[in-house]
UniProtKB/TrEMBL annotation:
This is Flagellar biosynthetic protein FliQ. It is found in: Cell membrane; Bacterial flagellum basal body. One of its GO terms (biological process) is bacterial-type flagellum assembly. The keyword Transmembrane helix applies. PANTHER family: FLAGELLAR BIOSYNTHETIC PROTEIN FLIQ (PTHR34040).
Amino acid sequence: MTPGTVVDIGRQAVEMTLMLAAPMFLAALITGLIVSVFQAATQINEMTLTFVPKLIAVFVTMVVAGHWMIALITDFTRRLLESIPTMIG
């Protein structure tokens, strides 16, 4: 296994991690912005008001995008395991 192969596998793993995390991060970010605007408008500064909606948004995102995320990581893992013989030999 050459150093280039290791770097390529690492790059693919980082790309996969970003692709899997992006929908949940975006859902939490958008929910946080909406809650922040609501808190600024009503001057309510309750910490649970920011945490619970983000948690719900991330959960809903996982339910909606879960099938796509599982298919993505399964395909990546399958390709990685199938390429082991070519990397070793």
